[in-house]
Structures are given as C-alpha cells and as structure tokens.
Amino acid sequence: MSRWLITFLSCLCVAVFLIGSSATLRADDVDADGARRARDAGKIAPLQHLFDKVERECRGRFVEMELDEDDGQWTYEIKLIGPRGDVAELEYDAADLRLLEAEGQHLDALECVPPGTPD
Fold first, then answer.
1. What's the rounded Cα separation, in Å, for the pair 36 and 44?
2. 3-state SS class at 107
C-alpha cells in the first residue's frame, strides 16, 4: 500500500471520527450524508478525483480536508505540507476542481499554484 494512501486513509478515519463525534456543526459544515447527497446530485466532484488531481499536480503531502457549502457554493479546502515543510491551504471549487485560492509560504515549491492565484 502506498505511503500516500496510508496517510489519506488515516486522515479520513480521523475526519469521520471528528464529524461523527461533533455535537454541534457550524452552518457551513457538511456531514457525510450531506456530502454524499451533494455528490449524487452532481453538485460536487467525488473526493477521490480531488486527491488524484492533487497527487498528480502538487509536490506536497496531504494532511487535512474540509468540504464547505456557503450559499450554494461548494468548496474543498485542503492542507498540504510542501517540500520545504511549509503548510499550504488550497481551496478548490468542489464541482469542477478549479483552484480558487491558495495561502501559505513558498507556494511555488508546490508546483501546482499558478502565479497570481488569489490568497
């Protein structure tokens, strides 16, 4: 099993635990059933597609993911540890997986954040 897959599965288990054990959710937080309904309705791309894209295009190690919905706009927010050890936060449109925003230092080292991407 690849190291990336083991890391992904570990993070996914933690995320499922946190979602399941959370007593209250903010208005923009999405639970597993909400995410499944949005995916089945075609409002968001499957999470695996985002992981495949990030693994293919970025030089970083995945550490966290969130799915948010705000006024009908669905976004995936991910955190990566870049090759220099910096944390980067990338926000993608959940429907078409277009990079919307990027925050962090040394984003150029990730090799997947075009110059001029909003932060």
1. 9
2. helix
All domains of the chain in start order, with CATH:
3-110 (3.10.450.40)
Instruction: Give me the tens of pLDDT residue by residue for the chain, a chain 119 residues long.
Output: 556 655 555 555 445 444 443 333 344 567 888 889 999 999 999 999 999 999 999 999 989 999 999 988 999 999 999 999 999 999 999 999 999 999 999 999 999 999 888 87
Instruction: Name the pTM for this structure.
Output: 0.74
Q: What are phi and psi of 100, to 5 degrees?
A: -100, -45
**DSSP secondary structure string, 6-70?**
HHHHHHHHHHHHHHHH-S---TTB--HHHHHHHHHTTSS--HHHHHHHHHHH--SEEEEEEEEEE
Identity of residue 111: E
d(CA 35, CA 32): 5
